[in-house]
Design brief:
The chain starts with 12 loop residues before the first strand and ends with a helix. Helix 3 packs antiparallel against helix 7. It contains 7 helices and 2 strands. It has one domain. The protein is mainly α. A hairpin with a 2-residue loop joins strand 1 and strand 2. The protein has a two-stranded antiparallel sheet.
Length: 227
């Protein structure tokens, strides 16, 4: 049976039951739990150092009110990185290639930042819709444009993560298919193509981590405008 390149993005199922929930919940099992003793092993120490550095860097421009989001941002960052990295393994499914999942993460968190801004400082929050010093004839047009850009933010968050991961997976599959096709006919070209595939895989590892960081970083910037 011929399979499409896009079949890898279909949610797996068992007996008609979608397994995307298992794919989302499984990464949490892989995280080491910090023990109660004073000295930890190297893996837990590395994990703790990474989370502390990331949290300090992310919350540096925020005031004290935004520090309440530290646990949420750190958990989301680790969660996205783990899912993206596991999706690069053979015969695995990447939930973050599904736009529905990414929008399910982006919309509630973006909406929470907007609600916080409207509740704590409504004047400042609404002031973002109209830049200072705008000519009077342009005021209605700019308000419409800024409102549209505000509501596009969660869509941009979800589409950016989905598009980057989907494009990377498609490129890897296309080049891997080319290697198998060229191997019996042109071995030298196939070896060079395999080297390109290896470099592309390393690039996708970096993209998996960078896109998770960008997703959380943009959320923190949206929060910074409203706290």
């Amino acid at each position: 049976m011929m399979m499409s390149f896009f079949d890898q993005f279909a949610s797996p199922s068992f007996l008609g039951i979608p397994l995307i929930a298992v794919a989302i919940a499984l990464p949490w099992v892989l995280f080491p739990t910090p023990p109660s003793r004073w000295l930890n092993n190297r893996l837990v120490t590395l994990q703790t150092w990474f989370i502390n550095r990331f949290t300090n860097q992310l919350l540096l421009p925020l005031n004290v009110g935004g520090h309440k989001w530290a646990l949420l941002f750190a958990s989301l960052m680790v969660f996205l990185i783990t899912i993206n990295m596991l999706g690069l393994l053979p015969y695995t499914f990447t939930p973050t290639t599904q736009l529905s999942l990414n929008m399910g993460l982006a919309v509630p968190l973006w909406l929470a930042t907007v609600i916080i801004g409207m509740r704590n400082q409504p004047t400042v929050a609404l002031g973002h819709l109209l830049p200072e010093g705008t000519p009077v004839p342009l005021i209605p047009v700019l308000i419409i444009i800024e409102t549209i850009s505000l509501f596009i933010r969660p869509l941009a968050l979800g589409v950016r993560l989905t598009a980057n991961l989907t494009a990377g997976h498609l490129l890897i599959q296309l080049i891997a298919t080319a290697v198998f096709v060229l191997m019996p006919m042109m071995p030298t070209v196939a070896i060079l193509t395999a080297a390109v595939l290896f470099l592309l895989t390393l690039l996708e590892v970096a993209v998996a981590m960078i896109q998770a960081y960008v997703f959380v970083l943009l959320l923190s910037l949206y929060l910074q405008e409203n706290v």
